[in-house]
Specification:
The complex is a heterotrimer of chains A (about 240), B (about 220) and C (about 60). By secondary structure, chain A is mainly α. Chain A has one domain. Chain A is built from 6 helices and no strands. About 5% of the residues of chain A have low confidence. Chain B has about 220 residues and is mostly helical. Chain B has one domain. The two termini of chain B are about 25 Å apart. Chain C is built from 2 helices and no strands. Chain C has a domain of about 35 residues. Chain C is rod-shaped and about 65 Å long. The chains are: A mainly alpha (about 240), B mainly alpha (about 220), C mainly alpha (about 60). At the A-C interface, helix 1, helix 2, helix 3 and helix 6 of A face helix 1 of C.
């Protein structure tokens, strides 16, 4: 079955119905293995056991950016190729991406308090992730405010693509902005070279979170397709009644 | 009493929806507080000094954002005329709408204050002081805003006029709110004095606002 | 092997971080499942009332 066949919502629903249980199992296994590796990982010589926060913080930070990339590709699909399921994919990804960004910010803040002594600091990386979070909320608000799904999808697609351009600009400009005013505290990134005993748990947890996203994304896409069917049927019923 | 509750419930439900005022107000508050460090610089000590002021200005603007829809939305679909013709006193009607606005727009701002205070590096005492002054002062913001909303309801571009009308009137609230917060943090002056005045402003506007707004509606919609 | 027995002086932060992650993940899963159930219920409701989609009619 070619990929283009998945453009048909009904076929998409039946294909994902078969795949979803396996994905869920794979996600659970990945988390089980990952958490075991986290549990048995050694303490960092600088940061002690708090390095364990990194195993949640970093995968979520990666996903925060990756999900926006997925949304951007889907948005191109909506605007350029007019793929039928592109705006469904985009809309389903937004709350997931926002949740991962929120987790990245929260765990980063919890990591920062014992390490730097403060919950928050306006350095380039934190600030650009915060702005990313605000942009997620913006797309979330936009896609749920417009009633008609396809119009909402196109509007959200435009906003997503503008955001995609804006992200490197923000990162670059905030880097520049931050170096004009010397930061108050010196921030050292995650240690020197990453030892395999730390790297392996990190990669496994990253894989686990990625599988979680794929599973939830497909499930959310299915829900969105069903939601649009409900809306169509409501409209048909209202039309028939009038 | 049932009319009061029914109207309160309706307005609250409308505001809580995704496109409604509650969510937008808090997000706007978050954005404003995020913007200030971009302009002022990331120096945490400086942010801590001006933190209460940033939070107050942010809350003021965020509560202003949703005032526009308070009466204009009802005017557009005709329900305002129905409310005017009803048996419930108009003063009570607008007070109910103000209460709904306060619950859905201003209360979330007060709840969001601790989180935003963390962004601005405020200590727990400062966060508590700001949250308390906002809690006491936002009813005044809502009721004063109610007057502006009533004055501009029938105008086509009324939404643009509303901040112009309301902001000058809210300056005393802002002054005493920030003064009370700063007094709690680092003050020779006591927290109690400006806080009492803030409460007095709120209580006074709770009375003045509905009467003025009702009068404005009656004259404006004749 | 350190396990969870000795998380050091900042144990509270580590536990809080993992608890938050768990809470968020569970919320996401719960939302997806609840949404699915709600849409299925609405569809069944509409179909019981006799409304059907064009493609359903063509397939039948």
């Amino acid at each position: 079955m070619a990929l283009i066949d998945l453009a048909n919502p009904t076929r998409f629903l039946s294909a994902t119905a078969r795949v979803l249980p396996w994905l869920a199992i794979a996600t659970a296994i990945a988390f089980a293995v990952g958490l075991y590796l986290v549990w048995s990982a050694p303490d960092d010589y600088q940061q002690g056991a708090t390095v364990k926060i990194m195993f949640i913080h970093v995968p979520n930070a990666w996903l925060a950016m990756a999900v926006w990339a997925v949304m951007s590709i889907a948005s191109i699909g909506t605007l350029v190729w007019r793929h039928p399921l592109a705006d469904v994919a985009a809309k389903a990804a937004v709350p997931l991406g926002a949740a991962f960004t929120f987790l990245a910010l929260l765990t980063g803040s919890l990591w920062g308090r014992p390490m730097w002594g403060t919950y928050w600091v306006w350095d380039a990386r934190l600030t650009s992730v915060l702005v990313l979070f605000l942009m997620y909320l913006g797309v979330l608000a936009l896609s749920r405010t417009v009633d008609d799904p396809s119009r909402a999808g196109r509007a959200a697609a435009i906003l997503t693509l503008v955001g995609a351009i804006n992200l490197p600009i923000i990162k670059f400009s905030v880097d520049w902005w931050n170096t004009l005013h010397q930061p108050a505290s010196v921030f050292r990134a995650s240690g020197p070279a990453i030892d395999p005993s730390i790297l392996t748990p990190l990669l496994v947890m990253a894989l686990a979170f990625m599988l979680l996203f794929v599973t939830l994304h497909l499930a959310a896409m299915r829900n969105e397709i069903l939601r649009r069917r409900v809306r169509t049927m409501w409209l048909m019923q209202a039309h028939a009644a009038s | 009493m049932t009319a009061f509750l029914a109207l309160l419930q309706r307005d609250t439900r409308l505001a809580i929806r995704i496109g409604g005022g509650a969510l937008m107000g808090v997000l706007f508050f978050l954005i404003v507080v995020t913007l200030v460090p971009f302009a002022v610089g990331p120096d945490l000590a400086q942010l801590r000094r001006i933190g209460p002021a940033i939070l107050w200005v942010g809350a003021l603007l965020a509560s202003l954002l949703t005032l526009d829809r308070l009466l204009a939305a009802d005017h557009e679909d005709g329900s305002l005329d129905l409310l005017l013709m009803g048996t419930t006193p108009l003063e009570l009607v607008v007070l109910t709408k103000a209460a709904a606005h306060w619950i859905t727009s201003c209360l979330p701002l007060v709840i969001a204050t601790p989180l935003l205070g963390l962004f601005l590096n405020l200590e727990p005492l400062a966060i508590g002081a700001v949250a308390l002054t906002l809690l006491a002062g936002t009813p005044a913001l809502t009721c004063i805003g109610l007057i502006g909303a009533a004055l501009s309801v029938a105008l086509r571009r009324g939404g643009l006029l509303l901040p112009l009308l309301v902001l000058p009137l809210t300056v005393p609230v802002l002054i005493f709110g920030v003064a009370a917060s700063n007094a709690a943090i680092a003050g020779p002056t006591s927290f109690g004095a400006p806080f009492m005045i803030l409460c007095a402003l709120s209580l006074g506007s709770l009375v003045l606002g509905p009467f003025a707004a009702a009068a404005a509606l009656r004259h404006g919609l004749e | 092997m350190t396990g969870f027995t000795n998380l050091g002086p900042h144990a509270a932060f580590i536990v809080a971080a993992y608890a938050a992650a768990l809470a968020v993940i569970i919320s996401l899963i719960a939302w997806v499942l609840a949404d699915h159930a709600a849409q299925r219920r609405l569809l069944a409701d509409l179909e019981a009332r006799g409304v059907s989609r064009r493609s359903d009619k063509e397939a039948a």
